[in-house]
Amino acid sequence: MAQSRVRRRKSRWKRTVKIFVFIGLFSFLLAGAAVTYFAFQLANATTSSEVELERGEKSELRTEPVNPSKDNISILFLGLDDREGNLEGRTDAMLLATFNKELASIKLLNIPRDSLVDIPGRKNRDKINHAHAYGGLDTTIDTVENLFDIPVDYYVTLNFVAFVEIVDALGGVEVEVPFTFTEMDSNDTHGAITLEEGTQLLDGEEALAFSRMRKSDPRGDFGRGERQQEVIKAVIRKGASFSSISSYNEVLQSIEDHISTNLSFGNIVALHSYASELNNMDSIHIEGDDRRINGGYYFEPRQDSIDELSAIFRVHLGLVEPEERDYDSFDTNEDEETE
Fold this sequence. Notes:
By secondary structure, this protein is α+β, with helices and mostly antiparallel strands. It has two domains: 15-162 and 246-329, Nucleotidyltransferase, domain 5; 172-239, Aminopeptidase (3-Layer(aba) Sandwich). It has nine helices and 14 strands. The chain has helices at 15-31, 35-41, 131-148, 160-169, 204-212, 220-239, 248-257, 265-270, 303-316; strands at residues 73-80, 91-100, 105-110, 116-117, 126-127, 154-159, 173-177, 181-183, 193-195, 198-202, 259-261, 282-284, 288-293, 296-301. The strands form five sheets. Strands 11-6-1-2-3-12 form a six-stranded mixed beta sheet, with helices on both faces. A two-stranded antiparallel ribbon has the order 4-5. Strands 7-10 form a two-stranded antiparallel ribbon. Mean pLDDT is 77; it is low at 2-14, 28-50 and 329-339. This is Cell envelope related transcriptional regulator. The chain crosses the membrane at residues 20-40.
């Protein structure tokens, strides 16, 4: 399938404005909401780019385009396993967030990358992280829309290069490592990074390893999702202070080259009303079962869980009226277990 055609129109910014915008986008990818924090700080800044998907300005599941300043919206965040700088290849992380304007609330779902799903244009079900390699952004978005029966209004993508360099620009992030483990680096060199149990200050490569590791975690993708959220909180703490950013001149160009979104800066600024909810995001989980097919590992989401999440998202987006069950009080932080 044809890749998404992206049109960029860039205006000249002061360097300080640029770095905070892209740090915000990076933060939002990991945990689904931190970009609003930085947008709030830069509410009067001008737009940096305009991006358009092949489908146009709105989802086919919308009757008209949405506006974050007045409408409930959804955003899909993609972390790409890409080193060439063209933002292609398979997704290594996938986060779906919905924003309710009236409630000023955010719901966030970490979609396991090995989820066995239907991908438009493919005969057989496959891992959801293959959708981007098969058909780019539009196919990935179509896959998520079909899975949960909701429109995906916006997307943000970045790759490992931007991740590593932004964390390094912040001078590292402090996290609590739950147990000692060894993980590959961004070049997939096995055993390159060892993180010791306890409170640690991590550089970019170490933060990437902390966020990517799942095989050594007994909770798999769910444990990884929690670690990603811990990284984002650390990024927010460091990113809030301009004095924490060092050597940003050296990384600015790389950040611009390795991040893509169809959110205009005006859209980002419109999300400022959610700033107070950054530490109260409602993290929801998908239930499923581990499977082996032809020797490969897959995570098969349970249909009742998909239906539950679809209902939660649809109510939160205002697509349907809430039924007797109060989805906002649904216990979404309960630990999940896989077989």
